[in-house]
Amino acid sequence: MSLNFTKMHGAGNDYVYVDCFRNATPADPAALATQVSDRNKGIGGDGLILICPSDIADARMRMFNSDGSEAEMCGNGLRCVAKYVYDHGIAVKESLTLETGAGVLSVTLSVAEGKVETVKVDMGEPILNPADVPTTIAATDKAVAAVVNAPLEFDGQTFEVTCVSMGNPHCIIYVEEATDNLVLRIGPMIETDPRFPAKTNVEFIEVISPTEVKQRTWERGSGETLACGTGASAVCVAGVLTGKTERKLTNHLLGGTLVLEWVEETNHVFMDGPATEVFSGVWEG
Q1: Looking at 80, 163, 171, 228, which residue is catalytic?
Q2: Active-site residue flag, 236
C-alpha cells in the first residue's frame, strides 16, 4: 500500500497527516495509526491524523492515537491541520472552521510570507459536569458542579485531582515537581482507573507563578507526549477553579510553549501556539 503523508508537529506533539482531499481515505486508519506511529519501524509519531472533506466546515480532522484508538480532539493536531489546509491550498483564508469529534471549532491563522506560523484556536467551553467529562468521581465544588481538588489514592499516595473535558477527558494534578515516577508510573494508573470510564489524559503541573506553569502529560492511548493542547486548555481552566493561576496563562510543555486564556465573558478557552511541517513522503507499508 502506497500512501502519501506529511509529518507535522505542534510544540513537539507530532503526528502523521494524510490529505484525504487528494488521497483515498485509508481503509483501516486504526491499524495504520499503530504502524506509522512506531518510532523504530514506522514513520514515528504520537498518532495518525486524517484531513478530510466536511459538509459543515472547511475541513474535518480525524485523530487516532498510537495505539489505534480514535480520540475526539487534539489541540496541537488541530493547529497543524489548520496550517496544512491553508499552506496546501485547500482553503486559503486566515479564519477557518474545522470539524472534530468534539464539534466544529474556529481558528485564526498568523501568516508570514504565505505560510502559517501560529494558530489561535477557539477551544470552546470547558465541560465540568462529572458525568460528561466523564468520571464517576462526585463533584466536590458544588458552585460549579465540578471535580475540584478531589482526593484520590494511587499506589499509596493521595493526589488532589481536578477533572475537565475539552471535548476529551483530562485529570489535572498540581505537584511540586513533575517527576518521571509520577508521569510514567502514576500517569498510566490514572489513565486506566475505572473511575474514568473513557480513560483519561493526565496532566502533572508545576506552578511557576499565577500566570505561568510547566506541564507534563501522560496522554490517553499514546503515553507521554511532548505537548497536549487540549490538556493545556484544561489546565488553564483548572488553575482558575483551584485558585492557583489566573485566566490568562503561559504554559511551558516539553516541546514548546502555548498561551491560553479562559475568557470570563464567553466561557470559551483560547489556545495560541505554533504549527510546523517537518517533511512529506510515501508510506509503503
Answers
A1: 228
A2: no
